[in-house]
Amino acid sequence: MKYTKDHEWLKIEGDIATIGITEYAAEALGELVYVELPKVGNSYKKHDAFAVVESSKSASDVYIPIAGEVVAVNEALNSAPELINQSSYKDGWIAKVKFIGESELDENMDENAYKDFLSKL
Amino acid sequence: MKITALNKTHIGQGAKMVEFAGYDMPVQYAEGMLKEHEWTRQGNVGVFDVSHMGQFYIEGANVAQFLSKITPTDFTLSTNFLAKYTVLTNEEGGIIDDLIITKINDEKFFIVLNAGCKEKDANWIRKNLEKNLQFNELENRSLIAVQGSKAQQILQSMLKNGNLSELAYMNLGYYHLKNNQEVIISRTGYTGEDGFEVSIENSIAENFWLELCKNNEVKPIGLGARDSLRLEMGYPLYGHDLDDSTSPVEAGISWVISKSNTNFIGANRVLKEKVDGVKRKRTGVKLLERGVAREGCEVRKFGKKIGILSSGGFSPTLKISIGQGYFDPQLVKLGDEVSVVIRDREVLAVIAPINFVEAKTKAIKK
Question: A12: distance to nearest CA of chain B, Å?
Fold first, then answer.
């Protein structure tokens, strides 16, 4: 799993990246009450805002960490946005993206680097 | 930043602190706003530190006449210990603040007003104050709201004397805690639940708060849930839903205007509007689709802008987003389909009664 400075995570399987937000981000946002999912088939450039997560206090954009096309979204979040709080790295995934530009993956942090990044916040 | 006497207590209880009206206040505790909201709404008791609000005594002969001049409410007809929600109006009939004024006796009233307006209100009242009146802040007192269906039972257990079952809604009394300290208790609140607001000396506030929190039915609740609780009730929040240009008629709180009171400051506009009607009135909006409507969101009817939301958020009780805003009553009626624009997307909504959830306070009688 890889992590971004904007607190997204991505898990790579072949040319598909599953994307979510980290536990740290979920905790900071508070209990989520709404997730605006991207549309399947939409393509995004790296760092485009492609989803929105809303807690009772605020709305935050989720930035796509890698360019690509959305091939699946987590429909379960429509009725249970709190899955992101309860299971940030598993049941709370947001979208699967067929990515282009594999080299961009290297710009993301691994778990140790992300932990180190968090410790300095 | 200013702090309340309970500042360290909140931090010790795991609160996330934010700045609100110049005070460092708990926005939520560890469990979060949704759970705190549900805890208060669904049969337990939430305790809220509202000590940032201003508490004042105003005293002197003819004080009731003075209060009937600075608000649309006739206080000369009030009875002892009756708390009244009303507004301070300016010369133009706009709302300077909304507040609770309780008659203690013919020559003494107790006032509780918003933290963010404290200075503005005090300046306004002092500017208009008649020479024989004294207006003094109770600077060394905290204010703790105890809200929820078990509030009476919990608070009663802390008292040495008196029977809270005899304290009717919107009434106030002086009581003693078990340690003999005097507290002022009124059966008021801003959650729609049965509950009380306790005015207590700063020096014993922490002890009282922690004793309350020892009960299994009691949890401390932050400003976040306080806001969603009041939003569900359709109560206005000053600075968002009310301001210096908005009249009580526009705000939909014409009931604060006493028929017998015609000479209050700003009466010209307010009384005219009461007869002729208004061009904009505070109204509820309920989303029919998912999404969170927030303050500032545009509201459209047939694709055309009809106003913006003055408040909005997610209702944990209804599990849908709700809000309030000002709309032309000629243009929108209850039940009308509208849309709320959230991030450039029109989300389907309906014009709804502003009290989205039934208040449980009305049933409380002596």
Answer: 30
Q: What is the mean pLDDT of each run of 10 residues along chain A (121 residues)?
A: 95 95 94 96 95 92 95 97 96 96 81 95 87
Question: Is the entire prediction scored with pTM above 0.90?
Answer: yes
**A57 to B33: CB separation less than 8 angstroms, yes or no:** yes
ipTM (interface predicted TM): 0.83
Contact by Cβ (8 Å): A17, A11: yes
Determine whether domain B1-278 maps to CATH 3.90.940.10.
Answer: no
Residues of chain B with C-beta less than 8 angstroms from the C-beta of A31: 32-35
- B228, B290, B343 member nearest A56 (Cβ): B228
What's the rounded Cα separation, in Å, for the pair A111 and B363?
56
CA dihedral (A65, A66, A68, A71) positive or negative:
negative
Domain A2-100+109-119 has CATH 3.40.800.20: no
Q: Which amino acid is at B3?
A: I
Name the residue ranges covered by the structural domains of chain B: 1-278, 279-352
Q: A38 and A70 in contact (C-beta within 8 Å)?
A: yes
Q: State which CATH number among 3.40.1550.10, 2.40.30.110, 3.40.50.970, 3.30.497.10 fits the domain covering B279-352.
A: 2.40.30.110
